[in-house]
């Protein structure tokens, strides 16, 4: 059984998730900033980080990547369509904001290239390619525990923005309707910002999805 710990980090409070198994081995998903705060959290719950997974490469989800990678000596995974975004402040969006530093982190160690069941550092999940918010956005579906970590694709009562680099509204809606809302009704969906939700709740109440 997996436990999920959420920690909002960085200037826009993006959710970082620690997905931890019974041996306290953990995946770090989207370390978006405040590396020392994240490390304190990891220590406080006794987690043993095994890898960093990124739902996408926008600055608010990657700022602490190198800090955490170097602390624990663990690999970083991202979708191949955003492999070069980690090093490019224009693509990852940090250059857009004059009150933020240009963010650039080292290249990922591994690339997601196709959908389907994957095993990373002892964790098994279904990788869903969910583009629209960005071209390489992915969601991690841990089907046995009915958990999905979806980045900025879908929110409680909202959907991801598509006015950033290579955003696409049609793709976003297709990703949501065909990949996320088709999950089991009571799947816990953990978004990149805000509170968790479920496919059933979003089908019923999300004003961006109701027809």
Please outline the helices and strands.
Blueprint: E1 3-9, E2 14-20, E3 25-29, H1 35-45, E4 48-53, H2 65-72, E5 76-79, H3 89-92, E6 110-112, E7 116-120, E8 123-129, E9 138-142, E10 147-151, E11 154-155, E12 158-159, H4 169-180, E13 188-191, H5 199-205
Question: Which structural traits does this protein have?
Answer:
5 helices; 20% helix; six-stranded mixed beta sheet; hydrolase; 29% strand; metal-binding; 211 residues; MBL_Glyoxalase_II; five-stranded mixed beta sheet; alpha/beta; Metallo-beta-lactamase, Chain A
Average pLDDT value? 97
How do the strands of the widest beta sheet line up side by side? 1-2-3-4-5-6
CATH topology: Metallo-beta-lactamase, Chain A
**CATH class placement:** Alpha Beta
* Secondary-structure class: alpha/beta
What would you say the CATH architecture is?
Answer: 4-Layer Sandwich
Which oligomeric state applies?
A: single chain
Number of strands: 13
What's the name of the CATH homologous superfamily?
Answer: Ribonuclease Z/Hydroxyacylglutathione hydrolase-like
C-alpha Rg, in Å?
16 Å
Question: How much of the polypeptide forms β-strand, as a percent range?
Answer: 25-35%
Largest sheet, in brief, is: 6 strands, mixed
Q: What sort of overall outline do the alpha carbons produce when their principal axes are compared?
A: globular
Overall number of structural domains: 1
- The H-and-E topology, N to C, reads as EEEHEHEHEEEEEEEHEH
Low-confidence stretches: none
N-C termini distance: 37 Å
Count of individual helical segments = 5
Helix content: 10-25%
